[in-house]
Amino acid sequence: MVLSGDEGNNTLGLGRGYAAGGKGTDTYNILRNQSAVAAKIVLKEHAVPQEYSKVLLDYDAIDIASVQLSGEDVYLELRGDNGARTELRLENMYRLHADGQKKSLQHSYVLYTRDGLRITGWPQTVNRAVDGQWPSLTPLVAHYLPDSDQSRRAFLSTARPEDIQVKFITPSRDGEKQVKVTIKGKPVSRHENNNPTLVPHFLQLAQVGTKFSTQMQGDKRNNTLSTTLLPGDEENNRLWHRHSKDSLKGKGGADRYQVHAGAREVEIDNQDDGSENDGEIAQDILMLPWDFEDMRIAQQGLDVVLTHASDPHSHPTVRIKRFMQHKNNRHLWLQDKNGVIDELQVTAKHQLLFYGLGEEAKPVHQEAARASSLLLEAMSGFTSSRHSSPDPAIPALLVRIDPSAASLGGIPAKSIRIQMQN
After folding, report:
1. What pLDDT shows up at residue 215?
2. pLDDT at 159 over 50
3. Looking at residue 350, what DSSP letter applies?
4. Tens digit of each residue's pLDDT (9 = 90 or more) over 370-381
5. pLDDT tens by residue, 38-68
6. Do residues 22 and 6 make contact, with C-beta atoms less than 8 angstroms apart?
7. What secondary structure does DSSP assign to 398-422, as a single string?
8. Among 16, 81, 138, 149, which residue has the fewest nearby CB atoms (within 10 Å)?
9. What's the predicted TM-score (pTM) here?
10. Which runs of E-coded beta strand occur in 63-200?
């Protein structure tokens, strides 16, 4: 079978044979091999690095047995029914440079599995090693998209959004990564025994939230955990976020928690005892969708709650769990939407502290603040607002927050009393 597209956005479907799309964003439906005979499929696209094509696989993620680069082509081995295999070849996906030492991506493919994973992250270039071998293209990045999950579509379309929860299971050590979806606490899937989506070892499961309540957990590496940023207008975002509560747990490594706009609840569990990194606790960053001056900070029991001061109903409520309990739950810097970074701390007297910048203030604990700033740069690749200032005389301010402010309203950061030492 030979299929050809024109210069528009084409949709081509095949279970074996050859397909060549034209210019534009083409979509290939790769049909499942249900026979006992092996099949071969070849896809050919124009060498336009800025364009991409969609490949819709009638296969689960775990059915992808391997991803390999051979010559200038990329080969995917797919496991079908009855033990049959399908070889999917992405022809001329990479181009070998004249020196024979480098290959560059010529056309990108976005893969979609039928159990909801979108696979991206192809390296732009690969370089030949000194031993003459070419490196692996993996790990690739897998995002879970409920709207693309055919294995659960019937369940999700009839359930109330507030009853749906997505959980990413990422083992601390080497182990099986999974996506588990429940409705009212019961797992749902068309897989046998409602089993979760299994993620192959060569895929890195992106810790990015969905439009439903999502639990995310990192591992011993440096993780980025992010709430979702939904497409569409603001009202559409509010509609979904209203039903959602995201739980982000970084564990070991220097983690980044990225909270996007939208009126949802977000819980941060920043507990790390250093057991994953030889006893060392790394500095983490919480990236917020507002300016510091627009932020309210409140203490509720052992938790710290961050909200938008003037429009809390259109912004997330961020709860940092057990922040006041132990240093293992802290080691956290805050970053506002303009990239300004300051540290959230607790004193020996169990007082909550927040640092800021000012032009006339004198330094408070300047050496400690500077040391923390340099540590943050080393661990996370960020530059704090203090260290990046062109004038080293601009100090850190000690901002004291009343621990008795136990309501979600809290205290606006811009109205907090500033204490200075001469």
Report:
1. 79
2. yes
3. S
4. 433 443 344 333
5. 999 999 887 776 678 999 999 999 999 999 9
6. yes
7. EEEE-TT--SSS-EEGGGS-EE---
8. 81
9. 0.70
10. 64-70, 73-79, 85-91, 94-96, 102-105, 108-112, 115-120, 125-127, 140-149, 164-169, 177-183, 186-187, 197-199
Say yes or no to pLDDT of 360 above 60: no
**Cβ–Cβ < 8 Å for 377, 384:** yes
CA separation for the pair 224, 179 (Å, rounded): 17
- 17, two tokens: 């044979």
Cα gap 198→64, rounded to integer Å = 11
Tokens standing for residue 209: 């939230």
Cβ-based burial of 145 (10 A; exposed 0-12, middle 13-18, buried ≥19): middle
Residue 352 has pLDDT above 60, yes or no: yes
Determine contact, residues 304/279, Cβ cutoff 8 Å: no
CA distance 380 to 176: 27
Position 269, amino acid: D
For residue 261, give the DSSP letter. Answer: S
pLDDT, mean of residues 400-412: 39
